[in-house]
Design goal:
It contains 8 helices and 7 strands, in the order E-H-E-H-H-E-H-H-E-H-E-H-E-E-H. The chain has 237 residues and is α/β, with parallel strands linked by helices. The chain has a domain of 165 residues: Rossmann fold, CATH 3.40.50.620. A 5-stranded parallel β-sheet has the order 3-2-1-4-5, with helices on both faces. The protein has a two-stranded antiparallel ribbon with strand order 6-7. Strand 6 and strand 7 form a beta hairpin. Helix 1 packs across helix 7 and helix 7 packs across helix 8. The radius of gyration is 17 Å and the shape is globular. It starts with 6 loop residues before the first strand and ends with a helix. Belongs to the QueC family.
Length: 237
C-alpha cells in the first residue's frame, strides 16, 4: 500500500496528542512531531514527551521507521500575554463569557501557524492536531469550523496545500480510548494511561485506573469518565 508522505503532529505528551501520533503513524510514510513550551502550568507534560516518543518507536518497527525528528518550540510569548488558569496559579472557574479560565486565547491558532511554518521548511504537507468539539470545554479554537478556516488562511498566506487533520474532532473520550485500542492494542492504551499527561494542575503523584492526575480538574474528570465508559463498553461486548 502506498502511503501519503509527510505529516507533522502537534504532540504535547497528553492522551489526545499521543493517540493522534499513533493515528498518523498508521497513515503517513514520514511523521515528525512538534511541541510547544508556552509557560504552561502543567509543564510536566513536556518532560514526559521524550519517553513517550521512545515507547512509540519501540511499539512497532513500522512506527519506528516512520517517526522522524521532534522539535520543541519556545512560545513563552503566550504565557506573557495571557492571564489564564493554564498559565497562572489560580483557581479554575467559569468566566462571564461562558468559557472556563483554562481557555488560552489564540493558543491553537498560534500553534497551527508555527507548525505550518515548520512543515513548510521540512517539506511536510499535513498537520495533525488533537482538537475536538465533542467532549471538550467549549474552547472556540478547538472547533471544526475554526480549523477549516485556519487551513484556508494558512494555504492562502503561504501558497501551499497543507491539510489540517483532526482525527478526534467528532469522538468523545471513550471513543478516543477505543481509537488508541484499535491503533495499538492494550500496549498503547497502557502507555497512554501510565505515561501520557493530561492533568491541568500537573500532578503525577497517584496512578488512578485512568492515569496520573489530581482527579478533580476538568481534564482529569473528562479523561476518567471516558476511560470508565471505554472499559464498560469492552465488558459489555
Amino acid at each position: 500500500m502506498s502511503l501519503p508522505d509527510g505529516a507533522l503532529v502537534l504532540f504535547s505528551g497528553g492522551q489526545d496528542s499521543t493517540t493522534c501520533l499513533a493515528w498518523a503513524l498508521q497513515r503517513y510514510q514520514r511523521v515528525e512531531t512538534i511541541g510547544f513550551d508556552y509557560g504552561q502550568r502543567h509543564a510536566i507534560e513536556l518532560s514526559v514527551r521524550p519517553g513517550l516518543l521512545q515507547q512509540m518507536r519501540a511499539h512497532s518497527s513500522d512506527w519506528n521507521a516512520r517517526l522522524g525528528p521532534d522539535q520543541m518550540i519556545d512560545l513563552g510569548l503566550i504565557g506573557q500575554l495571557s492571564d489564564t488558569a493554564m498559565t497562572r496559579d489560580v483557581e479554575i472557574v467559569m468566566q462571564d463569557n461562558g468559557l472556563p479560565n483554562t481557555f488560552v486565547p489564540g493558543r491553537n491558532l498560534l500553534f497551527m501557524t508555527v507548525a505550518a511554518t515548520v512543515a513548510y521548511r521540512r517539506g511536510l504537507n499535513v498537520l495533525v492536531g488533537g482538537m475536538c468539539e465533542t467532549d471538550y470545554s467549549g474552547y472556540p479554537d478547538c472547533r471544526d469550523d475554526t480549523m477549516k478556516a485556519l487551513q484556508v488562511a494558512l494555504n492562502l498566506g503561504m501558497a501551499t496545500q497543507l491539510k489540517l487533520e483532526t482525527p478526534l474532532m467528532w469522538l468523545d473520550k471513550a471513543q478516543t480510548w477505543q481509537l488508541a485500542q484499535d491503533l495499538g492494542g492494550d500496549a498503547l492504551v497502557n502507555m497512554i494511561r501510565e505515561d501520557a499527561h493530561t492533568c491541568y494542575l500537573g500532578q503525577r503523584g497517584e496512578l488512578h485506573d485512568w492515569g496520573y492526575g489530581c482527579g478533580n480538574c476538568p481534564a482529569c474528570s473528562l479523561r476518567a469518565r471516558g476511560y470508565h465508559a471505554f472499559i464498560a463498553g469492552r465488558r459489555s461486548v
